[in-house]
Amino acid sequence: MTELATHTGAAAALHPVEVTVNGQKRSAAVEARTLLVHFVRESLGLTGTHIGCDTTSCGACTVLVDGVPMKSCTMFAVQANGAEITTVEGLEQGGQLHPIQQAFSEEHGLQCGFCTPGMMLTSMALLAENPNPTDKDVRWAISGQICRCTGYQNIVNAVQRAGELMKEGS
Amino acid sequence: MATTQEVGGIGHSVPRKEDARFIRGKGTYFDDITLPGMLYMEILRSPFAHARLNGIDTSRAQALEGVVAVVTGELLAQHSLAWMPTLSGDTQAVLATDKVRFQGQEVACVIAETAYIAKDALELIDVDYEPLPAITSPQDAMADGAPMIRDEKEGQEGNHVYHWEAGDKDATDRAFADADKVISLDTHYPRCHPAPLECCGCVADVNPATGTATIYMTSQAPHVHRTLFAIVAGLPEHKIRIISPDIGGGFGNKVPIYPGYVVATAASLLIGRPVKWVEDRTGNLISTGFARDYHMRGELAVKDGKMTGLRASLLSDQGAFFADAQPTKVRAGLFHIVTGSYDIPAAHVVADGYYTNKAPGGVAYRCSFRVTEASYLIERLVDNAAHELGVDAAQFRLDNFIQPDQFPYESATGFLYDSGNYPEAMRMALEKLGYEELRKEQEAARAEGRLLGIGLASFTEVLGAGKGKDYAIAGVRMFDSAELRVHPTGKAILKLGVRTQGQGHETTFAQIVASELGIPYDHIEVQEGDTDNTPYGVGTYASRSTPVAGAATAVIARKLRDKGKEIAAHLLEASAEDIEFDAGSFYVKGSPDRAKTIQDIAFAAYTDIPDGMEAGLEGVHYYDPPNMTYPFGTYAVVVEIDRGTGQWKVEKVVAVDDCGVRINPMIVEGQIMGGLTEGYAIAAMELITFDDDGNCIGANMMDYLIPTAWETPEFELGEMVTPSPHHPIGAKGVGESATVGSPAAYVNAVIDALWHAGVRNIDMPLSPDKVWQALAEAGLAE
Question: What 3-state DSSP class applies to B301?
Fold first, then answer.
């Protein structure tokens, strides 16, 4: 289906963008300058992806593009044409929380919740490559994300716990 | 009252209820709200720190397709909205009319069909600025012939804002005259910024048909904001509804009312459509509530190894408008807690504030009204004093602490400390650290040419801001409120006047009710943030939610329990005096099998009550704290300095905290670790600074450095519990302890590593270049 393009100036040319987001094909026509984060939040209505800085510093807008964590405030929607995108809304499957979600809650890896979607998605990409990350591995992997609340220690614990849960589940 | 883990009362680390939505991306932050017909607002900000405004031409912007309106100060002035009051009794420009007074000041707003068009239109507004010399420090602001920043203000002379004193000058002078030794320290606690991950913003929806204004805004104090909107905008208060939805961090940044909120609301009123304003990060960092910026001089008088007197003089840099968020009767917040954890018989504080061409705001970045600056000054001074006296820094503190048998303790500046055990906190921290051993290691390392430092800080905070008759903000007394209703099936709803920003209120406050009534915590819905549906409250900041709203929650739950006893007496055919309560069960004294559960009582409250009793099981309580609460602790930090780069690595952090009774220990520890990280951030890297022309350096997250997981140290925590004797559940509050206490510990550690080479102070942030400079001057650089 084609959603309403929300950023359209009347005179601007529109470009169709089709993506597979959380397993579903979605498309919209947007201006060339539309940022991927605005496309995700507004054209697709997936507001779990947040915006924190405008300068690619904070990582609140991180989504997985073809499995790779990308800061969606620094990518145009048209660049994601044809890609597979995973957002936080795609983590829970059939009413089952993803282990990363379960672990973040169990380990108190979140407080205000604003950085959490980006943190979880980046951590998932790490765990896909390295199921047994050390403290340092985790800290390095999430060093493109800012959390203002937790002091990171519980996030590190959560990522390691998620790794264990994923092994138990597989 | 003890409860099972399932009931989840006080003391249980139950999982947070709010997590369910956040881990699914289903939180509702204000920017997630889209209303039909909604317009978007963007703000044009001044590029100059100080300039006369000779004119604004909006015609090109207005001609852009999709632009609905361009709002200027001149237009607002026609509605008497060009200026608004601040929380400190000053005025602040909503949109500039005569001059701009800081870089980033709001000059005009564009309202358009899309945010992208609104941004495009900003570039089409032509402003005629006539630059004026900028003042960027209080020292320059007080100089003869300094340009006057607030020339529009009647009765204003020069740039002086306030003069304020606390304590006893004569007694302090006598202590200094009698001292063996006087230790002094001049330091600047630099300007930093709370920078919550979510910037500020709102969706203002004024319905032209009903006249109702619904404002979804990032507000830590929605009720007070409603009242201020009523006063500022002249809207009738019953027609204003502030909804503070999920907040992506606050740390004080979301306490004040900013121009963006006012213009968006005015625009919605004038246009008749909802208006969304989303602040960008630069706007957040350069225009909204900064923190600190105190130039401090401290002097400590010592006689026979005892601290006998303390002087503190402050120059505060207020920016262009005096907009500090603080109780009205004080001018430098609660800075006069500066005697800290020590039994210092005489103290005197003198503070003066000055206008500068910098952003206004003076919020307390995770701090109870300037307690952070006070704690930093005394803990730096005490450490330097120990070094100068040649006494161990821990021992010097132990020799001077207020002792456990001195509580309640009246400080030289008039605070009545409720309870504490400072020596025990110190001993626990030293033991966890392995202090003695570390001092030996430090010596050995020094012999090898390595620079190891150990820093201590033993802070005491002052929280809650009670009594109401002594403390008020904008005239509103600093009480807080709780409304509790137990439904017939025994499930409850608790509504509070405060507003969580990540602290976990939905869980913690339910746990208080669980303890008081025995209702499982997950059967209690906690609601906050909607002024139509919650009792009036003063908001969440200054670590006041648990001290004040937590107390209100316990008190109202106890009132319902008393009513429950009467209902139980009726059901059990006993006298109410004979009914006892424990863990959710009301029973007849001596016959525990003659009992009714809280769920039975709740049902009976609506179905089977004694004659003459009002139906229902609900009530509201407004709690006026009888005193402040005084959490305390000792933090200990070990660092090693790289002599080649000036970088300092934190090897160990031990934090012993005593915040009284811990409601949810997991959440408490989360708060402490968050605070230790922000304390580290301030000590190491966070800085909002300006060049001589008033250009803000630190205007985005590439320049305003915030630690990531990579830089952030690991923390080892220690727990002590000294209950507050006057708080209904003995809790003291914890949200800010670690930001208040830890910066001095980090800095003391670095100075400790360099003291032997003559280094006495480095002002924060201790960036590698500054530390390297100190190394070079001390002949230690490699």
Answer: strand
